[in-house]
Design brief:
The chain has about 35 residues and is mainly alpha-helical. About 90% of the residues lie in helices and about 0% in strands. It has one helix and no strands. The chain has one helix at about 5-35. The protein is rod-shaped and about 50 Å long.
């Protein structure tokens, strides 16, 4: 995979990592509110 295809793959991987990070932060803040 080169050129645009490789860039798209990287983009989706980054988006997945960011989504997981956001989910963790949301869970932590929800637990903090419940505590």
């Amino acid at each position: 995979m080169g050129g645009l295809g490789g860039t798209l793959v990287q983009y989706f991987e980054i988006m997945q990592v960011l989504q997981v990070d956001l989910n963790k932060k949301c869970l932590q803040s929800a637990q903090n509110r419940a505590a």
